[in-house]
Amino acid sequence: MKYLVDNIIDAKSLSFEEWYRNIIDGKGNEIFPSNCFPNNEICDEYLKRINEFSEIEIKSVLRQFLVNTCNYGSDSFYAKVLLDTKSKIEIIELINKYEHIRRLLSKNPTWEGITWILDLLPDSPNDAIKVLDSYFSAHCLLLPDFAVNGLNDASTIISAKYITYEYPQQKFLELTPTEFEWIVEELYKSKGYKTHLTQKTHDGGIDIIAERIEKSEREKILIQCKRYSKNISVKEVRELNGVINDYPLTKGEKITKGIIISSSDFTYAAKKLYEKNYSIELINFKELSKELNKYLGRYWFHKRSNIFREKRKAYA
């Protein structure tokens, strides 16, 4: 264990267990750096074991990495440089132009905290990452390097814990075919699409129509939901392609693409055909799991009853 100054421990000299215990026990002020992973080895070990840690422990680390309402040591130096080198008129112009300068020269903390994004977890991890990205864009040139690293590390943790977690195939097979369609429809609604479940005997096997108008461009997607245990064959991919080509449209309409979403996987031949056809998209249960985590939250499966209750009302 290596010390820096004033009994501050060099975090790079710690084992993973020593570093983790300091963070969880609230002793981050005794190590440096404490607002990001100190090295790649500790980062890799943490991510490898991330599913061992409780929600409270995950948030304890994130709280340490996110910018808190505070001043950094460089802030007072930067404020003094401004006051010494700029005229009163120039300082007023900077204050009116930059909120950061206004805070820097006030008696209040320079940095407004972003720990409130913890309230978006576990249900809205994608929103939490979007907020982090925006905060990073606004402040990356002004924050100390370790604080910038901490924002990046926090984003990585959120993604690893709440988005890339993979539900096993069996969880999807526990859903009925109708429930599987409802989950997929809810996913596309959360992505900003206007969705419509089709009648079972119409539309050439299409289960969901998803539409979105964005920046004067209109998307119309035809979705087939296949709650199967066996892999989807090339024959079924060809059939979807035929449905897209023959689908009845009003004047000026066009199909953006057709999607097969499966609770299983796709055969090699189906994947090869998909690679050559840009109007088709294939989504297996692993990819679907990540998308659902991203847009419905890590625990969507445990909250599925609430989704199904609303769908029953809507389609009664």
Secondary-structure-based class equals alpha/beta
Overall pLDDT level: 93
SSE string, helix = H, strand = E? Answer: EHEHHHHHHHHHEEEHEHEHH
Kindly provide the radius of gyration, computed on alpha-carbon positions and rounded to a whole number of angstroms.
Answer: 25 Å
**What share of the residues does DSSP label as strand, in percent?**
5-15%
Major sheet attributes? 5 strands, mixed
CATH topology of the largest domain: Trna Endonuclease, Chain: A, domain 1
Helix content: 40-55%
User: How many independent structural domains?
Assistant: 2
- Choose one word for the global shape: elongated
Q: Stretches where pLDDT falls below 50 for ≥5 residues?
A: none
The CATH architecture of the largest domain: 3-Layer(aba) Sandwich
Instruction: Give the number of helices.
Output: 14
**CATH C-level name of the largest domain:** Alpha Beta
- Distance between the first and last residues' Cα: 65 Å
